[in-house]
């Protein structure tokens, strides 16, 4: 919803679907927010990782033991895979029946040339809109280097929830998240695809840099990366990061009104900087501290 792709793609994929990173002094960041009789723990996820890239340990393991409910950006447990596929196709395919190359217009030949130079066949993506083609190409490039959602934070968390019988919830629906991408302006969708094609060959080096920041707990570096990624795209950070943070802060206030302790796992760029969730909750008067 990222990094060895250019700043545009890094911002998009990190923010919405694909690679989010977080920080803490001795590992990925974990915040504790004190509520009215309960607590919410905030943990930043990396959605795509190599095998063994994440496990529940350290301070997160303590929070896991204390939390009765685990909340993700999207809770897919009650959504059949067939419904997920149908929702995705409904967003990924142009409702007017135009192909990828029709939608690209004057950029179509450039996209073909860049794909050929990168050794990528674009024909299989002809039925889809540019945002979906770019996302899929980026994920395939990561998979070729051993990164996969099957090893990412959410997958590990979901398996542990099932094992331990945790109650679960989600902040958004699948269709809402897909809509953030599907609703991007055509020119930006074109740029995402073109830059993904240009940078797909360097994906591992860039991903390593982001993964290192997440593992080492450098939240300042991640906040700088967030600012840099969106610098050339005014308003995009509002739509993909900050507007969602504001909505989530409202939902978190309801969670902090008593009941179970909750562990919230979201893309970690939502947790850094002065408009990240920890800062927003602090501004609302809650005690927020790093664990």
Describe the 3D structure:
With 291 residues, this protein is of the alpha/beta class. The chain has one domain. The protein has 13 helices and six strands. Strands 4-3-5-2-1-6 form a six-stranded mixed beta sheet, sandwiched between helices. Strand 1 and strand 2 form a beta hairpin. Helix 1 packs across helix 11 (219-230) and helix 3 (81-92) runs parallel beside helix 8 (174-182). The radius of gyration is 19 Å and the shape is globular. Mean pLDDT is 87; it is low at 1-25.
List keywords for this structure.
globular; 291 residues; 12% strand; disordered N terminus; alpha/beta
How does the major sheet shape up?
A: 6 strands, mixed
Widest sheet: strand order? 4-3-5-2-1-6
Gyration radius (Cα, Å) is 19 Å
Shape: globular
Helix-and-strand structural type:
alpha/beta
Strand content: 5-15%
- Number of β-strand runs: 6
Helicity, as a percent range: 40-55%
Segments where pLDDT lies below 50 for 5+ residues? 1-25
List the topology elements.
Blueprint: H1 7-17, E1 30-34, E2 39-45, H2 58-66, E3 69-74, H3 81-92, H4 100-104, H5 108-118, H6 130-143, H7 153-164, E4 167-172, H8 174-182, H9 186-199, H10 203-216, H11 219-230, H12 236-255, E5 262-267, H13 277-283, E6 287-290
Parallel strand pairs: 2-5, 3-4, 3-5
Antiparallel strand pairs: 1-2, 1-6
